[in-house]
Specification:
1 helix, 2 domains, eight-stranded antiparallel β-sheet, about 170 residues, mainly beta
Length: about 170
């Protein structure tokens, strides 16, 4: 009877671990000579949607209109109208950041404003039957425009509109 005993030495060698990452075609790849030291750092810098991120200047514009006829004792009429303009976030410093999902952007119209998540797949304008006009938003690498409440498509004696504009500062 022959008994052979053998023990293999457990080698815990960290020389084979790659601790850097490179961004190639918007994907993070482990690489010995990578620019990023963590996967999260690579993902944050490699995302194609980074062209939108940074500091932005936002301005919300609202218009309220109402009009009516006033008649005198001889039934002569005169049109009277009232227009009110409002501005929110006037030239405020806001930001756009990458969201948790690849197609999400997080907008903050001002420092004190609550963040709003926009999905890039939802960009563009669509007709809203209930509001009677186009609503939606568009974003380029330097501009943002969002129609929140459109002007009515035809005559209306009173209406309100609201939109938000943005310009990238960097």
């Amino acid at each position: 009877m022959l008994l052979i005993l053998s023990c293999e030495e457990d080698v815990n060698n960290n020389d084979n671990l790659i601790e850097k990452f490179s961004c190639i075609n918007n994907n993070c790849i482990a690489s010995e000579d990578g620019l990023y030291t963590t996967l999260n750092e690579c993902i944050n810098n490699c995302n194609i949607n980074n062209i939108y991120t940074g500091n932005w200047n936002f301005k919300g514009n609202g218009t309220s209109y109402s009009g009516y006829y006033v008649y005198d004792s001889l039934l002569n009429s005169q049109w009277v109208s009232n227009v009110t303009y409002t501005t929110n976030y006037n030239d405020s410093l806001g930001t756009i950041q990458i969201g948790e999902n690849i197609d999400e952007l997080i907008f903050k119209y001002c420092e004190a404003c609550d963040p709003i998540i926009y999905n890039l797949n939802d960009s563009g304008f669509v007709y809203s039957e209930s509001l009677g006009g186009n609503i939606g938003w568009v974003l380029t690498d330097t501009t943002f425009f969002n129609i929140v409440t459109p002007q009515p498509p035809g005559y209306s004696s009173s209406y309100s509109t609201y939109n938000i504009e943005g310009w990238k500062l960097e």
